[in-house]
Amino acid sequence: MTVPRLLRHVTTLLLPGALAAQQPVTLTLGGAARMAAAQSGATAIAHERVAQADARVRQARSFLFPTLSASAGQSERNQNTATFGFSFRDPNGTPLFNPNGQILPPVKVLDLRGRAQANLLDLSVAAKLGVVRQQVRIAEAEAAGTGDQAAALAAATYVRAVRADANLGARLADSTLAAELLTIAAEQMQAGVGVALDVTRARSQLSQSHAQLIAARAECDRARLDLRRVIGLSADTPLVLADSLAALPADAAAPSAEDATRIALAKRADIRAMDEQKRAAERGVSATKLERLPTVGLFGDQGAIGPNSAHLLNTYAWGLQVSLPLFDGFRREGRLEEQRAQVREVEARRRDLEAQTAIEVRTALLDLSTAREMLEAAT
């Protein structure tokens, strides 16, 4: 393969596939992390879960307000006198209706009515509202954790992309050098100071470098596709990576394992979410206990009823009702046992998460120390 053909082939490999695209997105490492935390798919899903939790708060709050309804109905019904269960007789004892039954003329009823019902005292409703509000805080903490995870994934993917760019540049330099060595070997053989074996060896090295260049280009494209995916951009959006491996900080002072673990336990969103879950479970236990207390409710309705609209008369009904649960087949006690088990489960999960956090911190510090030693050894 001649040098001009090689250069044309390399140019084809490096030619961007979307020359017509406009306004490329310039990304730094921090910008990629912030963009992923704000607009990645996982973050959008987490924010919708927060919106769902807010909607459940409005649903739970509705039990604190009275319910109002209105109805209008018109009916017509006839009656078989034999179904009354008793007989009507005149003063002489003669039945007024056929003892075997007879059909009375139909009765028309027009009923226009409004109804209202309200809970005057129900402590469990307020407690359940507190549980639902706690679930909103859980969703918010989980959304923050999802944003942190998206940012970390975007940062790692960005570093992978700039490493792929650096590897592509190195492979391009190798291919250029291999092409130059092939030219030198061919010229030396033509001058009589070289052998065909040198040309064959140089051509083999060029083919190997060419294959590595193709693989590096594919890895570079894959890394950029993954980066677009994690930061929420379309697959054909052109990217310009503003940072390079040399520009990324590598000598920042690392905290001790104890300090890093303490900071992680205080600031990690998933641990905050676990704490909120425990509070919600404890409030659920309290709300279920309050269901044992009596409740006071008010109800009433008022409307007009008659055979037709010309003969309507106003009627009403209202009342005050006190309800006291006496026995429900131990269903409430079963719920309490379940909720107490949920509290213990959350406590166990939090302890496990604390241990996992400590391991992750020490693993990250170990990886950082190893990478620095490898960098020092390479330089």
Textual characterization of the structure:
The structure is a single chain. The chain is of the alpha+beta class and 379 residues long. It has a domain at 1-66 and 125-248: Up-down Bundle (Outer membrane efflux proteins (OEP)). The chain has helices at 3-14, 29-39, 41-61, 123-190, 196-231, 257-267, 269-290, 331-378, and strands at 25-27, 67-77, 107-121, 239-241, 295-306, 313-323. It has a four-stranded antiparallel beta sheet with strand order 2-3-5-6, with no helix packed on it. α2 runs antiparallel to α4 (123-190), α4 (123-190) packs antiparallel against α7 and α7 packs antiparallel against α8 (331-378). It is elongated and about 150 Å long. It starts with a helix and ends with a helix. The relative contact order is 0.13.
Features of the shown structure:
alpha+beta; Outer membrane efflux proteins (OEP); elongated; four-stranded antiparallel beta sheet; 379 residues
